[in-house]
What we know:
By secondary structure, the protein is mainly α. It has a domain at 8-85 and 204-256. Helix content is 72%, strand content 2%. The protein contains nine helices and two strands, in the order ααααααββααα. A two-stranded antiparallel sheet has the order 1-2. A hairpin with a 6-residue loop joins strand 1 and strand 2 (177-178). Helix 5 packs antiparallel against helix 6. The model is unreliable at 1-6 (pLDDT under 50).
Amino acid sequence: MGIPQLDFNILYGCMLYPLAAVWCYHLIMMMVNGEIDMIEGVVGLGLTLFLAANVFVPMFPYGRHVSGFLLITAGITVPILKSYFNTRAHAKIDADILEKACLALEFDHQNWGAHIEIANQSYRLGLLEPAVAHLEAAVTMAPLYTTAEKNRLKLWKDEMDQIKPARALACPTCGHQNALTTVRCAQCNSMILPILVSGRWVSENMTAKVARVWGIVVIASAISLLALDRLSGTVALPIIFATMFASILFLARVLRHR
Length: 258
């Protein structure tokens, strides 16, 4: 008795359905967290189920392959992007803490406590050279009150001896070389350390934007392919062009909205 052949469509569905489930979970969590509203979430869930159904019973040309591509895009790419945006959000929190300490130092250049805060945050975030420079400044300003910091400074200097330390702090905005304890760039006036820590800040609703863009692409693809399959060329072509035009308008609106 021969080994029964496993149907390709069933195998394909078994591979894609977990991705659809992952995407549904993320859509539900975005609704719970208020990143997208209830209507957007329900539409997204409906589109996901529609694509999942197309894996077994295609409702438009190339439906199985298009649905598979869109489910893979959502089920794998979007969670990775969400994790990346969460990491950037944490970096923004660190940048906010550093910015407050930098503003305190700007207000009072003899604020050795602000120097210590900047040093500790910089060291924790891997910026060893400015950490050493700020801690050294704090110890110089308040030698009687910084006994623990003196010991820490010695350890950090020993650590810095193991590398080739930078002698200046490059501004991430304009590239100007500044002293290691500089708060703002002497050339462009940007606050250096917070930008170094956060990178270019990512909009907090970026994940929701990705979800909305995905939804627009799914709807536009389905309408265009259905029109191509069910209508004559003279009727289908204007509908496809109108769909693409409307999609571009919606995408521009989503990407422009903060």
